[in-house]
Amino acid sequence: RYTLDFFIPREVIEKTKETMEALQKRNAAIQPSLAIIQVNWIYPVKNLKNKTISLCVGINMDFAIVKEVLKLNEDPGVHGLYLHLPPASTTSRVLTALKPEKDVEGISDLSTGCLIRGDLSTGYVPPVISAVLELLNHFSDVSLEGKTVLVLGGHGTLEVTLRCLIERNGMVAITSHWTSKNLKSEVMEADAIVILEAGNMDLPPNWVKPGAVVFSCDPTHNTGTVLLRVCSSLSIIHSIWLLFLLQSPVLLFIQKNVVHSCTRWLQERQYQPWNLSSINLQPQTPVPSDIEISRAQTPKPVDQLAKEIGLLPEELEVYGRSKAKVRLSLLDRLQNQPDGKYVLVAGITPTPLGEGKSTVTIGLVQALSAHLKLNSFACLRQPSQGPTFGVKGGAAGGGYAQVIPMEEFNLHLTGDIHAITAANNLVAAAIDARILHESTQSDKALYNRLVPSVNGVRRFSPIQISRLRRLGMDKTDPASLTPQEINAFVRLDLDPSRITWHRVVDTNDRFLRKITVGQASTEKGQSREVWFDIAVASEIMAILALADGLEDMKTRLARMVVGTSRGGQPVTAEDLGVSGALAVLMKDAIKPTLMQTLEGTPVFVHAGPFANIAHGNSSVLADKLALKLVGQDGFVVTEAGFGADIGMEKFFNIKCRASGLQPNVVVLVATVRALKMHGGGPNVRLQTTELLEFSGCRSNLRKQIQIARLFGVPVVVAVNVFKTDTQAELDLVCQIAKECGASDAVPCHHWAQGGRGCIELAHAVNAAATRSNNFQFLYNLQLPLVDKIRAIAQQVYGADDIELSPDAKAKIDYYNQQGHGSLPICMAKTHLSLSHMPEKKGAPTGFILPIRDVRASVGAGFIYPLVGTMSTMPGLPTRPCFYDIDLDPVTEEISGLF
């Protein structure tokens, strides 16, 4: 007699055990898990966490199985799926739905195809076949190579796969059926017989040659008497008939596959080296329009790009073919991965048209990745619809250094700005509704409506309990509040004249700068003057850019101050009861959007806070995700709005404080045309060099380099080349930049040549990133607000001192009383001059910086002093960009964006 244990392959057991121990050593919490979808009964698999899903047989059985399979496919806690179903239920739809990496049976079409081709990297060998091959080896005294194996009674993928794997192991496989005329001779010639389906058929014992091994894989085959006949009629002990499908060998290989799946799952979640494929760029002369260049280049499918840079399929939410949201779970997966190098692109004081920071950012990453083969990521702001249809036009870069498709980049993208608009205006609606209801209802009526009785039970919502806590009431029973406590709870008592929250729209609509609301008779006289900002000026946009996760964003949204009560207390979004709803509206917007450059290098597009009253930088989360993805030797290049005195200063003092990140290099973008303007131009002919040297380079450029060096970061000057520039001018700017303290200064031809035109800059940045970095903040947060404002005015702008208006002084006192004195400063001033006077070019000195007002974005986490008059709602010019924007109704091609 032979016990079943005799046939268990001990080596497989030990190997599986060792693999499990290694898994749990790397991650103590990991437990390989098998989910079994079944109709009647299941296999008891030891040492695995099993999850059994029983389904009722019916007309919708196929739909129910597919639905369950798709759900388990996305469950990270399930590493293997076993379908214990009747053959009729194992339909093509079910097999197609099954993920190959979880198909531990090896029955899906993809798994079968890979096995037949010889690729074992994705799917799994079916446990039945593994057991057959193992037992063939076990019962063979000599090498199996050249032996003949008869596969009897099978059909379909199991037979094909078994035959292929038998032959791959050096044996000769032949197939036959019970009705074959040559069955006896085929059996007598075989060294091993594998019966896939037997039904009521038996092999006569005298057909099996001495020494042959016979296996039945048919669970319905009654082999008891056959086994006795074979053993009694043969003197050679190796002639054995074994039924094993429901016994330990197959279960062992199920277990092995599940453990292997779990191992693969963990390996995939480790940092993956990039396998980035560049898109060939063929620049033309003269350079076509931006949209023509964009349309001529076909972007890679975004899921292909994601795979190339090490993203997992479950970390991607695809929006069409060329863009996708990236889930924040990536940060948890790569939390132990060292960050790459962090590069900030800033600029000198610009002309009204800008000096090309976005094109330099894109050209630099194209050079680093496509030409120097260094991992690099660009992190850019999402453009507002206002400039797109107003004056500036598209903001996807330009020439041969841009993000594609540029139409999608400039128009809606993945809807983040729309989400911000909806959230912002929900707050505005809640404010006016609350003022109306408080003015027309008694305390009791308000309380009954705010805390309604549902099915005879009155409960506080979680956000209401939070308000009670802030009011000092440790109560959860609505019936326990006193009349005085009810009054404090229901009355926000907002002062209409001190509401600071504005409505927003993502269009340059100058007639919304000041309007009157509440004029309908239904609003019962609650009319008041309000105004609109452009959507990107919303505090919610600033919060999106500074939040480091969903929980942090939710907390920041809750503490946004929307106004002041008549008693002088701040009223927050949480007091209004709206902050949870805001988080719901923003839950997708918090995920950065993945796109690509013209040369196929990755780009994150995320957030675009107004660079005057906010910090004007893309999101902390995009930078953090990119720094993990590029690897320790890679580069993340991000851009700051306006000149170094605004965008860069705020990047360091606000964004870096929020993120905890420190930049390795600053790239300072300069143009000859802007330096001529600072020298007294722009229309300069005879004195070009003189103005460049003395008034342009040695004033504004020198000052902006000094500002960057205030923070202890190496500076590389990138001279954005225009076709009107002469070589002498470019050489002079580079020479003076180095004399003024830049680590290096190079001309950049990315607009006309793409990444190839930025190779010199890429080498300079790579070299500067290896230098010592003594990064420091400009001021200590514990300094008084006035001293922090003065530090920026004197050390960054070059002012002699500041002058506070009475309103500004009063606001500073108020914010100190409210405990906001330790927040950083976000100066709101013109970007056209280092001073507060737009007409003052170069590097003005000897002026007093006037602070006319001071406001707070408590949710975003900064105080913003206003220097002069600051418009937060741009207006349309006489001839806006939209005159040139059109759509071909046949091809759906967009024209005129830029």
Automatic annotation (TrEMBL):
Pathway: One-carbon metabolism; tetrahydrofolate interconversion. This is formate--tetrahydrofolate ligase. One of its GO terms (molecular function) is ATP binding. GO terms for cellular component: cytosol. The gene is mthfd1l. Homodimer. Keywords: ATP-binding, Ligase, Nucleotide-binding, One-carbon metabolism. The keyword Nucleotide-binding applies. It holds the Pfam family FTHFS. One of its GO terms (biological process) is tetrahydrofolate interconversion. Its EC number is 6.3.4.3. In the N-terminal section; belongs to the tetrahydrofolate dehydrogenase/cyclohydrolase family. The keyword Ligase applies. It comes from the Eukaryota. Transmembrane segments: none annotated. The lineage of its organism: Eukaryota, Metazoa, Chordata, Craniata, Vertebrata. It comes from Takifugu rubripes (Japanese pufferfish). Residues 130-215 form the Tetrahydrofolate dehydrogenase/cyclohydrolase NAD(P)-binding domain.
